[in-house]
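worker-03 picked up job from queue 'complexes'. Input manifest follows; two sequence lines, order preserved.
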Amino acid sequence: MDKWIFIIDVEACEDCNNCFLSCKDEYIDNDFPPYSIAQPKHGQRWMNIERKERGQCPMVDVAFLPTPCMHCDNAPCIKKAKNGAVYKSNNGIVIIDPDKARGQKDIVDACPYGAIWWNENKQVAQKCTMCVHLLNDGWKKPRCVQSCPTGALRFVSGEDSAIAQIIKDEKLEPLHPEYNAKPRVYYKNLYRFNRCFIGGTVAVQKKGVTDCVEGAMVTLYKDSEKVYEAITDNYGDFKFDNLEENSGKYRLEISARSYDKKTIEVDLIASINVGTIML
Amino acid sequence: MGGNMKLSNTRFKMMLYATNYLLNRTARKYPSFKQRLKEKNFTAQIKVMDNTVGRYFTFSNGKIISKSGIHPSPDVCMAFSDTALANRLLMPSRNQMEQINAMKNFRLTLVGPDELTWWFMETLSQMFSAGIDYGIDVGNNTKRYVNNSNAGAMFVYVKDGKIIRITPLEFDDSDAPPWTIEARGKKFTPPRKCTLSPFGLAMKSLIYSPDRLLYPMKRVDFDPNGERNCEKRGISGYERISWDEALDIVANEIKRVKREYGPGAILTSAPSHHMWGNIGYYLSAHRRFTNAIGTTQVVANPDSWEGWFWGAVHHWGNSMRLGSAEIYGTVEDALKECEMMVFWSSDPESVPGAYSGFESTVRRQWLMELGIKTVHINPYFDATAALMGGKWLAPRPDTGNAMALAIAYVWITEDLYDKEYIATHTTGFDTWKDYIIGKEDGIPKTPEWQETETAVPAKDVRALAREWGTKKTYLGAGGPGNQEGGACRCATGLEWARSLVCLMAMQGIGKPGVNMGNMTYGAPVDARFYFPGYAEGGMSGDIEGTASAMNLYQRMPHLTSMNTVAQRVPRLNIPEAILNGYCEGYPNNTKTIEGQFFKFTYPAPGHAKIQMYYKYGGSYIGTMTETNRYVKSYRSPNLSFVVNQSIWMEGETKFADIILPACTNFERWDIGETSNAGGYIIHNFNKMNHRIVTMQHKCIEPLGESKSDYQIFLELSKRLGLSSYFSEGATELDWCKRMFEGSDLPRATTWKKFLKKGYYVVPAPKEELRPPCAYRWFYEGRKKDLPEPIPLPGDYTEKYLEGLQTQSGKIEFDASSLKRFDPDDPERPTISKFIPSWEGPHTTELFKKYPLQLISPHPRFSFHTHTDGKDSTINDVKDHRVFIDGYYYWILRINTRDAEERGIKQDDLVKVFNDRGAVVCAAQVTERLPYGVIQSCCSAAVYDPIGEPGISIDRGGTINLLTSSRPVIKKSHSAASNTCLAQVEKWDGQ
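worker-03 finished. Artifact:
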């Protein structure tokens, strides 16, 4: 049986919010029994976009993490729900039955991803349904994927083995594998959100004029181990990415022809722009 | 009587008989039509003028009694000069041109009370349109309609008379295939759909917004026959009144101020944009009506183009594009040739100019795929930089020209420019060169010199200049890449735009890979297929005030309209006109470069001062400068009457005496092409990946008692005896069909098919027929070969189509137009020079008091004020507003260090203020801005003063209260929205 997954490329998401807004368009004021009742106009984010800024001006980047229900294969919400109020359909989609789930606020708290929302008025837990009512009508993708202009969101179905191959080929990873929930939402370039960088600029002063140094060799060491090497660009810039936050001390060695080697120590907490290093 | 005439008379008799038959048949077939016939009891006569043949129709309680002959006293009489003409015009397939000619030459007359003549005409029209079939049945009792918007074309799903969903328009197999560009061994093809801007996906929430105006309303303490209490505008509430009462008041006020004061007493203005559609547009139905009553017009500043229109145009012409660059063929050229793209004050992912959704995003992704380097110059690390990566240079605001001059300095001193091109394609370079290297004023414009202005390290500017000077580079300036940009909307904006033209000349614009653009314009769509854009004036017939004369007036036969009032008010000085009774301005006349030089004053000679203000919508407080001025002017007793026609209750609507509720374009008929702006921006559709012409279906009935703009103007016209002139006897659907027939659509599809399906995708031209690349003709010294009819023939100095619009036909570093106009203007010298901002670090005293530079770019999630507020789902976008203690606050972005110095944390409420106003915002603490710079978008729709309007602090987010009303230069009509000093402090609720 083919099952659905979301593939979300963090690097391709530009926070346009088309996914978030088309989800609101679909679900506000619209009941789709037996899968969902209307989303309240405000307060719920079935597609929740988180923002992460890294670095310091002028070496920064910003990444966005669209976070829907993870449609976990080992879903804590299913376990928590009484009367089978939350169930997994054959195509991999996790559904909260709005009738059976009435009054079960525990379902909201059960989700480690914070992807389930409580409708105070209707006393029911609600979340992304992968637009199952539309899929049943022959749609090939949910609203959020349809309206995504960058291809950051994809919707793919296949047998488990085929899905596993895609995950391997495209180097996809789930969010928080440590929750052990086996999500059906996979991310690409997640490092932009949950890892960090060390960057900086190399310059030199000659006859009173400061210029960027292109082609300097910058080497990153962790303890005495070489981690990365980079060559500065025409702005003298270098950047080592995909490092772990709070991972302790690093050493940068900068060398360029006819200049003395320079060494910088960095205690890495979060992404850092070490600024201009004068040779 | 000749035989032909006899035959003709007989035929006329038959046609009249058939009309009677059709009326009755339609009533039998369609219950709604039958119901309609019960609305009026009267007699209508159709005849020839000499009374030889005729038939009358008596409508009586839903029954039609029809008799051949002449009625002694019909209520309505339609008369033709002869039966031959009548026979031709009574056919459904009549020639529209002949109809108009007959009307113009009094060969066809319609006499009777407006209420009945209109009803009769509408009934005859509905005889043919009753029961029309439109939209696609998609099951579940749901129909899929098509509509269009500033956000793009969309599918609209309707069930039980209610819109349930709005999606991007996706093509089916029968629609035209897309184009493909082959570049560097790869093939690039856009997806077959219409992307939507975010606010397009919020449209349903706006259509059903609780802030919709559903009934006509009157301010409770406004009495047109007694106390008007003008100072209570913005304070007092409203009461519901009937349409008849509202329309009577407005029509009577129109007549009253004309009677008591004379021409010019009525001021009308509409926003720069409207909901989509060529019929309902403000340049269409609205303009036809305002021309018909004669009104003082508001002259728009070339908002968003300031530096290009008042500055760049003098160096390279292109006045009809407001001084911006040519737009054709650049996508293909960039993909094939360019090695670097510089985005300067250019964030197409937030604002690609207007209308075109995310059409160009995929093209920039292709650049990324090809590994083309990008540089982003903007005080804010914008959405485009965030998506694309590359080098970010973060200058202080309002310093763009200093950096541009320093780039020229590097090129000159390091020999990194095209001397051959300078010699053959430009004039005046040596004058500018002397200024750059310091020969003129002793100050070499070095990268070090610019660092003191921009705070961008000299080494970075030198590195940029060296790379730019050695690589084939595209310059993307402003959101669309060839125009606009926050850097052109500030005190140094003219000089910035002027210098960019000079930089492009130094690198030889038009060479393969060297051009202006950021992939937003220049898609290879068919520019030869004609469908009118909105600035062609729709049904206005305004050949003076719109681009109607270019094509549409000839192609869709209709009556002309002309405003008889010559008085004008510059938009940015409406408050001064009302409060002080005097103001002056410069016109937005794009016909020639010199069109902008003609200063005008208000009041105009022999004209009345403004007494009545007929305002459409509510955008000015949120979009103009120093807008407490506008609030104060609304509350002035100088304005004895204010009517606002609006879809929603917005910040500005509540300053009216009478509110007329208009409906959205989802509740009425219209027709329009996505991103086709017509004469305002010729071929603006080349931002789109596909040209999409839409039948804008009437998806639902108007909400509440709201009416289409057309209907509102028609109702007012009836009260002024203008209904036949205004409508030409045509319904909105009739007008759509007329526009269809005036376009190239009938050669591609049928009306019936178009009406049913709702859209047509214009096929892309084959490769050999694609529009050529911008400026290639100029670079290669050929005649201009682009598919645009500009500049006008008289503006060529040499032979027609040879050279640019400037006096020399070349790019002029030293502008001849400025030498002729005012060579000694210190604010606009004949060459681009460094002129420090009149509000910034150089204004030392003010800078001490207000040490933060505020930029207020166009918002990403709202199209101006259009989709902000109103309980729209846009409010919930985290990067648009922040919900704190039950209120949606506007966002102010502030650098980490500035925030720390003021004890401000993420999502704290802060007060941003200067001497002009104060606004409460939610702080977003960020490293996307340099130290000393704050950012908060313009165009909040919510104006929510805590105390007295026009004076007190606003918590709606109207950041425009803070910006200066000073024009960029005196001899212009311009807004310097990004020149603004302010201070920020934590808001303590007081």
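worker-03 released lock.
Chain B touches chain A through 60 residues (CB under 8 Å).
Residues 283 and 971 of chain B are 27 Å apart (CA to CA).
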